[in-house]
Amino acid sequence: MGTRLIIDTDPGVDDAFAIALAALSDDVDLLGVTTVFGNVSLEATTRNALRVLQLCGRPDVPVAAGAARPLVHPQPARAGHVHGEDGLSGRSAALPEPERGPEPGGAVKLLVSLLEAADEPVTIAPIGPLTNIALLLAAHPHVKEKIGRIVLMGGGVGRGNSTATAEFNIWSDPEAARRVLVEEDVPCVMVPLDLTHRCAVSTAWLGKLAAGGRIGAALEALTPDYLASYRRSLGWDGIVLHDAVAVAEAISPGILRTESYPVDVDCTFGPGRGTTLVDRRRAGMRGEGEGAVAPSAVQVAVDTDVDGLGEFVLGRLTR
């Protein structure tokens, strides 16, 4: 078996694609899925995760519900206007009813049990707000040695989507994001908006997905609200598979090219709240001595073979 993977998620259309990408990949041991508030309510994200796994024939994968709100301050807004009020363009109920419910005890309990039981490093792919991961690392630091790396979708280098500079997942809980990205020493790969937008797929790609089999057709059917939203922001008919880009890197390390940068997260209450501050200056320009920026373990994804990545995702979803 290949990559041992746990996905932390707030489905969300792109989350549904990402979960399916992992669930359908033969070289992935999908240990579990944990859910978090984000695009829609925790109740809806949990239901959606269970239904996507059932669609993929993977009711064996345990699901546990996690944080229903941010660590400290209320979530500013959800994203029903992008994903539909149920998170899946109003079509969640069209997916099969799950055979099993969420695990008792919640997300952090499941994360701890899966990591403690692991005999090889585990990759965690958080593709929603980072609240569950911050709670895990704060309350159970002994499990860090079991985490190979954290591959997260979030942040931006030169752009935002919830504000001019802040990306939705980070903006939803900046304090949690700062705990994970800045205050911990677990290796992190940050997959930002700048790259995921370059990996947008067209309606022709979606047509191939729909023609590729039962699961692909069901996933494509979840996209109308998402497509309408991205038609406005992209200026052409396509969607951005943000979370699937991150999960592709989690599955196939190196499919994205990364560069190491110091990263901080703006937790103030000004217009920059939730912004990921990526210091792209050369090391010699970052200052020395007291007040200098310490070297960061954050690998920021900056490039990929866009066409190759699209074929990678499409091939796995239609296998």
UniProtKB/TrEMBL annotation:
<dbReference type="InterPro" id="IPR023186">
    <property type="entry name" value="IUNH"/>
</dbReference>
<dbReference type="InterPro" id="IPR001910">
    <property type="entry name" value="Inosine/uridine_hydrolase_dom"/>
</dbReference>
<keyword id="KW-0326">Glycosidase</keyword>
<feature type="domain" description="Inosine/uridine-preferring nucleoside hydrolase">
    <location>
        <begin position="5"/>
        <end position="308"/>
    </location>
</feature>
<dbReference type="GO" id="GO:0006152">
    <property type="term" value="P:purine nucleoside catabolic process"/>
</dbReference>
<feature type="region of interest" description="Disordered">
    <location>
        <begin position="76"/>
        <end position="104"/>
    </location>
</feature>
<dbReference type="InterPro" id="IPR036452">
    <property type="entry name" value="Ribo_hydro-like"/>
</dbReference>
<protein>
    <submittedName>
        <fullName>Pyrimidine-specific ribonucleoside hydrolase</fullName>
    </submittedName>
</protein>
<dbReference type="GO" id="GO:0005829">
    <property type="term" value="C:cytosol"/>
</dbReference>
<dbReference type="Pfam" id="PF01156">
    <property type="entry name" value="IU_nuc_hydro"/>
</dbReference>
<dbReference type="GO" id="GO:0008477">
    <property type="term" value="F:purine nucleosidase activity"/>
</dbReference>
<keyword id="KW-0378">Hydrolase</keyword>
